[in-house]
Amino acid sequence: MKETTERVLQPAEIAEACRQLTDQGARLQMAYAWFPEPGESPEVLYLADEGPGKPFPLLRCRLSRESVQLDSLASQIPLLGWYEREMTDLCGITFAGHPESHPLVLHEGARPPLPPLDPRYLKDQIMPYTEEAWDLPPVEGNDVQILPFGPVRGDVLESAQIVFYYIGEAILHCHPRLFFKHRGMEKRFEGLSPMMGTLIAERISGIGSVSHALAYCQAVENACECEIPVRARYLRSILAEMERLYNHLYYLGHLCHTTTLKVGEAQGKLLAEQCKQLNGFFTGSRFLSGLLKPGGLRRDLDLNGLPGRLRTLEPEIESYMRALETTNSHLDRLITTGHLPYQTAFDQGASGPIKRASGIRRDLRCDHPYAAYDSLTIKIPMCRDGDAHARAQIRMAEIRASIALILRGVEEMQEGAIDTELPMSPHAEGLGWCEGPRGSTYYCVHFDDSGRLARVKVKSPSFSNWRVFPFTVHDTNMMDYAINEASFGLTMAGCDR
Amino acid sequence: MPIWTLYGLSRGLATTPWPGKGDSAQQQGVLGLPVFNPDRCDENCRACVDSCLPGAIGVEASVSGERLTIDYGKCIGCQLCTETCPGGALEKSDHWAFGVRRREDLVWTEALATQEAQELKNVIRSTFGRSLHIRHVDAGSCNGCESELQALNNPYYNLHRLGIFFTPSPRFADLLLVTGSVTYAMHEPLLETYNAMPKPKWVMATGTCAVSGGVTGGGYSCAHGLDGILPVDIYLPGCPPNPSAMIHALLLLLRRAEQMVHGGHYGQ
């Protein structure tokens, strides 16, 4: 793949190579498997990030037909734990010595006749399922109570179950059971044309439709060696920042909801609504979808009126954020809540504003510029505190940066073509990435011999951050839980796919 | 805290007067589902059929030869057909109020079938007056529908002013509002929620996924929306339907608004 340094290894060499990468300071970003030929053995790929400007290290390893097994690396590189369990569930690869060797993506009781991502598994074949009890960590002691919360939770929330082990107010352990919303989205890409794949990517996480479509389109363009016109690059960056804006404003409103700051909640959500209305007015979609395609954009946008509208909104947003930062009752609930130390954030794979709030200076927009981010330079906001307040502060700084970026982007953008022909590329492979509102999104695409999609791997930021989140809940109290969860700004749809 | 009271008051009224007064200008620029102009359609061209991923546009044999069929219940509003149609038979539109009481009303038919009075039983009004309590269940959505449902409670739409509330417990709910194409893991929790609701109760399929499965339905882990799982009273396609479309559909259930789509025709 372009922009990566590939190494093809034997199964026995993988563990050593991964350790080497982490020793050099690289951080693994995702691991996945695919079946290059139907009926043959799978190939496993590990993607890492070595830091700004350096190509992504990529380790590839074809398993033998006789032994679809690898040694688990989860006890040494914890963030790989979920990727390994996902490969077990969806690709049938076993990982010897995995510390949490129970199902993750498919719930207990789901029994697909073949691994669902095996190309021989038919696209529209529902898998048999009977509800089964699932492995919960055992409890000792008379005073510990268990509270299963969800999957249908209060208010309008996405489905997920959080199991609390608690004594009185104190949470001893929190055990999220996710993937209720697993829709098998990666399977949906199979056999589609590059254009149609965009429609699927946009619908993996509705409130991240630009980040997903962008990472997907870039992966396809990377595979097909297609350079898109400058105007399309600018428009893509502007759309990505518009997405960040409405997401972060909603985040602030929702955070106020959990700290019971009513007017703050109303104002945050109103500002998010106003941004969505701007999206609708200028792009035809409140979620900015239906615009991107591999090769550029589907239609040109007239954004001349956008800076004016944004400038009237800017003082409102600014005064709102200033008021939040001077409200003691609100800050009291955020400061020290849900503390995520640097090392945990790094080891467990935290992404986006979460990792930047814990002192990890990584942002794909700067480290590996895409779209127009090589000309639209940004300053990465950083915090070291790692608490709910730090996570909110990062987002507030990003709101300011996004507005500035949109204004500059519209000003600098020249007239010109918005798309280019996408060459047909049988057997091509590509990697695409994007720093969305919630963190890093990666897409890997593999084409078949007729230039249709054979496998698309999606790494969404919430998959990373849900893995990290429980570490901030243990040994805290019930009163802070909702605030802590809101401060992470997680989505289920992206995580579950 | 007093500063926030002042802050709130100084911002004045943020709520839209719609649907009481005014038009639906709050969705200015937002594209709805495409509109079909049969007289501009070249019968032998299949560009739109090939461009429709969820299979909302199809071909059906009839007495006068083959003709196009459009099922808005499957449309994800991706606008691809409007971009590929060479003759402008399918056009972008601002039609979004697609809430209907019968699933068939989302299917475009050449001649408008005579409408029988498809009125919900008067029991709705006599039981609930003009108020409604909703329990939402996410049965596997992309979070787009949730985002718009959450928007209903922002100061702009301010759903409470219409006497409509979200309730945490199904025991207090009159309406089960379902999003998503129903994954295998959410199937049971969805039925349990429905069964926990007191009678009389209603079900609204919200978003194209819940109406027909859209592009997420089927596959190894999903059903094709609510049909065959729960009895549906209101279908609201859209990907996602915007907050105004949701308000329209809720008022339609309460018989406080008129249905806009009959036999796939908008506004007749």
What does this structure look like?
- The complex is a heterodimer of chains A (497) and B (268).
- Chain A contains 16 helices and 14 strands.
- Chain A is of the alpha+beta class and 497 residues long.
- Chain A has 2 domains: 4-96, 2-Layer Sandwich (Beta Polymerase, domain 2); 191-459, Orthogonal Bundle (Cytochrome-c3 Hydrogenase, chain B).
- In chain A, the strands form 5 sheets. In chain A, strands 1-4-3-2 form a 4-stranded mixed β-sheet.
- In chain A, a hairpin with a 2-residue loop joins strand 12 and strand 13 (439-447).
- Chain A starts with a strand and ends with a helix.
- The model of chain A has no long low-confidence stretch (mean pLDDT 91).
- With 268 residues, chain B is an alpha/beta fold.
- In chain B, the strands form 4 sheets. A 5-stranded parallel β-sheet of chain B has the order 6-5-7-8-9, sandwiched between helices.
- In chain B, strand 7, helix 6 (184-195) and strand 8 (202-206) form a beta-alpha-beta unit.
- The relative contact order of chain B is 0.18.
- The interface between A and B is large, with 75 and 67 residues.
Q: Which characteristics define this entry?
A:
heterodimer, A: alpha+beta, Cytochrome-c3 Hydrogenase, chain B, 2 domains, four-stranded mixed β-sheet, three-stranded antiparallel β-sheet, 39% helix, B: 268 residues, alpha/beta, Rossmann fold, five-stranded parallel β-sheet, two-stranded antiparallel ribbon, 8 helices, 11 strands, globular
Count the strands of chain A? 14
Helix content of chain A: 25-40%
User: What is the domain total for the residues of chain B?
Assistant: 2
Strand content of chain A: 15-25%
CATH class of the largest domain in chain A: Mainly Alpha
SS field, number of helical segments of chain A: 16
User: What's the Cα radius of gyration of chain B?
Assistant: 19 Å
Low-confidence stretches of chain A: none
CATH topology-level name of the largest domain in chain B: Rossmann fold
Mean pLDDT of chain A: 91
Helix fraction of chain B by DSSP (H/I, runs of at least 4): 10-25%
The strand line-up of the biggest sheet of chain A is 1-4-3-2
What's the SSE pattern of chain B?
HEHEEHEHEHEEHEHEHEE
Gyration radius of chain A, rounded: 22 Å
Reported CATH architecture of the largest domain in chain B: 3-Layer(aba) Sandwich
Structural class of chain B: alpha/beta
Beta percentage of chain B is 15-25%
CATH superfamily of the largest domain in chain A, please?
A: Cytochrome-c3 Hydrogenase, chain B
The assembly state of the depicted protein chains is heterodimer
